[in-house]
Task: inverse folding
């Protein structure tokens, strides 16, 4: 996984993301999934644009393109690819960076639970997730076993919180109590950097360490 996150509340937030996953079936056969996405989110959380291409064994499997805009009464989603979709969601629905900032606000005020509907344009851009974030107690001492990339002054001086987020697809039919579609846990630093990533999809788990970190100089954003 590679994240490139730039911007601020003045210019908006841009995220370039790539995830390459190789999955074997135990019989010598493997499939390689290559997801590449670009998103832009308005600093005031009024609009969100997204584009994503997913390749399966080097063949284009899905091409997604769309946007969401926050009106006075709803979040209005318009997807042009892979199929034309128009949907309205509750006006309180959060976009991804807005959601992260809400989690940081909760952590700073020692709030341990945060429930929120989140729209991130993932997959075909036609889903919304109800999320439950659980925020642990703030820590300041660097973990005993920390990746070399995280051993730098910018992080050693930061507080961080263990965070777990459960994602539930809204409207999904289930038998009995709904279980999360997936769960994500990580250590979240006060500057927004995260490490010690784990994504649990139920049938398999992805665990990730921070292997490279390049910090950019903040802009002089003034409002």
Result:
């Amino acid at each position: 996984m590679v994240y490139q996150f730039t911007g601020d509340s003045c210019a908006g937030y841009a995220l370039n993301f790539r995830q390459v996953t190789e999955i074997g079936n135990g019989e010598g056969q493997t499939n390689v999934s290559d997801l590449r996405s670009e998103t832009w989110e308005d600093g005031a959380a009024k609009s969100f644009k997204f584009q994503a291409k997913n390749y399966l064994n080097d063949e284009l499997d899905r091409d997604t393109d769309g946007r969401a805009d926050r009106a006075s009464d709803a979040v209005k989603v318009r997807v042009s690819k892979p199929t034309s979709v128009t949907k309205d969601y509750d006006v309180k629905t959060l976009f991804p960076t807005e959601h992260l900032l809400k989690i940081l606000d909760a952590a700073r005020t020692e709030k341990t639970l945060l429930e929120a509907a989140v729209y991130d344009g993932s997959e075909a851009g036609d889903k919304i997730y109800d999320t439950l974030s659980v925020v642990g107690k703030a820590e300041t001492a660097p973990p005993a076993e920390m990746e070399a990339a995280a051993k730098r002054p910018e992080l050693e001086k930061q507080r961080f919180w263990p965070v777990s987020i459960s994602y539930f697809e809204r409207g999904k039919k289930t038998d009995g109590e709904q279980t999360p579609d997936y769960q994500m846990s990580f250590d979240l630093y006060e500057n927004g950097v995260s490490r010690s990533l784990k994504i649990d999809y139920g049938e398999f788990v992805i665990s990730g360490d921070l292997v490279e970190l390049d910090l950019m100089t903040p802009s002089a954003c003034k409002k």
